[in-house]
Design a protein that fits this description.
Elements: H1 4-24, H2 33-39, H3 46-60, E1 62-63, H4 72-78, E2 80-81, H5 83-96, E3 100-108, E4 120-128, E5 131-135, H6 137-141, E6 142-145, E7 148-151, H7 163-166, E8 170-172, H8 186-191, H9 206-214, E9 223-224, E10 230-234, E11 240-241, E12 247-253, E13 257-263, E14 266-268, E15 272-274, E16 277-282, E17 288-296, E18 304-311, H10 316-325, H11 341-346, H12 351-361, E19 368-369, E20 375-379, E21 385-387, E22 392-398, E23 402-408, E24 411-413, E25 417-419, E26 424-429, E27 435-443, E28 452-460
Helix pairs in contact: 2-5, 3-5, 4-5
């Protein structure tokens, strides 16, 4: 809880701070009252005026990636500036409409925890006689990525920042601006992870995080690479995941991004789009690392890692859980020839049944499944190696009109019967010689006699 004693202290020193701030703000040649009044029109409280100014700065002033614009006048003229310029503009606009604004100087960390060598500036705005709020308009405006400023879309996480969140990344030169029950010394600040206040929007308790961090504990939370253009709606809050457990990820980008989950060698980009939200339910199959990555849609850029997790070493229970909830990810399939999880599932193969068969029958090879034709496999041999002279039952459901045949060593078989219960096409074949058995298809609209392979088996004696 923020102690009133700190607000009382700030009241006592406010005149001195205001005078000091006034001295450090560059001289101006502008009358800021007209702009300030237009920004805050119809706003009756100091809090609402402060928010209106914050939003105007975020939406109209870009960060100066040349790091040369420090003064309010220059920032207003060129519509860009560094943190000092943002804060000076906040000071000028706020004072013009009766706000008491202090510019806070101090140290800040970047997203990797590295301290900015040139320091940083943010503001304290008194909203009533015994209270005030911390604001960082620079970070609220956006971020810099590879030398390019990326403006945020309505990022209010840096307005009225809880002091407990602020201390993870901002360390004021004057300790009175920490606004904490117990001040944090600089060495403790250095050891804190660079957590973003936006984390509070989806479930993290800042009191618990700060207390645990100051006690020297390593926080078990994911590593986040903040991007103001991507809103995290729902992700696992624990930094350690388990094999076999399903996890929901929901992300809402402001830009045209695509996303991927990488769990060791597996990459899954089968996200569903619901309105503007990208969502996926993912079950880790491998211990080690799991990351959520993004890149601009259609680009060939490497994936930028946005969230990173650790997946704990799998127990026997985890493996059983995996095979129950996501049998297609079982390690049993790793060395199975022709195994293609997506194609098998798209053709309707029961992966739990297949897993049991591979274990029981010691299957080493599956049939080859091709992309041609639209069909569902109902009951076909799942062992890709057939025997000469053995009978094999085939049942499948074609979803596309055409000529469906089984080719047995050059002989075309079209003797299908229909199962009235599920409309499957059914036949039995007996391979006559070593070679190939193929389910093939020719569309009705085809003008030539060529068939496309759909399913292919090897035949041995």
């Amino acid at each position: 809880m923020i102690r009133n004693i700190f607000f009382a202290l700030l009241l006592l020193i406010h005149i001195g701070c205001f005078a000091q701030t006034s001295k450090t703000v560059s001289k101006t040649r502008y009358d800021w009252s007209g702009l300030a009044e237009s920004i805050t029109q119809d706003k009756t409280t100091n809090y609402d005026k402060a928010y209106a100014i914050y939003r105007w700065l975020c939406e109209n002033i870009a960060y100066d990636t040349s790091y040369s614009i420090h003064k309010a006048d220059d920032a207003y003229k060129q519509k860009r500036g560094v943190c000092q310029a943002y804060c000076e503009m906040f000071f000028r606009l706020g004072n013009a409409v009766g706000l008491d604004v202090d510019i806070i100087k101090g140290k800040a960390k970047d997203r990797y925890g590295k301290i900015f060598k040139d320091g940083h500036a943010w503001v304290f705005v008194r909203t009533n006689d015994d209270a005030g709020i911390l604001i960082d308009p620079t970070w609220g405006a956006g971020s810099v990525d590879n030398g390019r400023f990326i403006r945020s879309e309505m990022d209010d996480s840096w307005f009225h920042v809880d002091p407990k969140w602020m201390i993870f990344t901002h360390y004021p030169d004057s300790e009175s601006y920490q606004l904490l029950d117990d001040n944090v010394d600089y060495s403790s600040f250095i050891s804190l992870p660079p957590l973003d206040p936006s984390l509070g929007n989806f479930g993290y308790n800042v009191d618990e995080l700060l207390a645990s961090s100051l006690d020297g504990n390593t926080l078990d939370i994911p590593k986040y690479l903040y991007n103001s253009q991507i809103k995290i709606v729902n992700v696992p809050l624990s930094g350690t995941l388990r094999v076999g457990e399903p996890y929901d990820f929901i992300i809402e980008p402001a830009d045209d991004y695509e996303f991927v989950i990488i769990n060791e060698e597996e990459q899954d980009n089968s996200w569903e789009l619901d309105n503007r939200c990208h969502q996926i339910k993912f079950v880790p199959a491998e211990s080690g690392n799991l990351v959520v990555g993004y890149r601009h849609r259609g680009s060939n850029d490497n994936w930028t890692h946005m969230i990173s997790y650790k997946v704990a070493d799998a127990t026997d229970g985890d493996i059983s859980n995996l095979e129950m909830k996501a049998p297609h990810k079982s390690h049993v399939f790793k060395n199975l020839q022709n195994f293609d999880s997506n194609r098998l599932r798209n053709r309707g193969v029961d992966m739990g049944k297949l897993l049991a068969m591979v274990r029981q029958d010691n299957i080493k090879q599956l049939p080859l499944i091709y992309d041609a034709g639209d069909f569902k496999l109902d009951d076909v041999p799942l062992n890709g190696m057939l025997k000469v002279g053995e009978p094999y039952h085939f049942a499948f459901s074609p979803k596309e009109e055409g000529d469906w045949v089984i080719i047995n060593n050059g002989v075309f078989l079209r003797e299908w019967t229909q199962d009235p219960l599920n409309n499957s096409w059914v036949t039995t074949i007996i391979p006559s010689a070593p070679g190939k058995v193929v389910l093939a298809f020719k569309p009705s609209a085809s003008t030539d006699n060529s068939f496309s392979y759909c399913l292919e088996y090897d035949v041995e004696n």
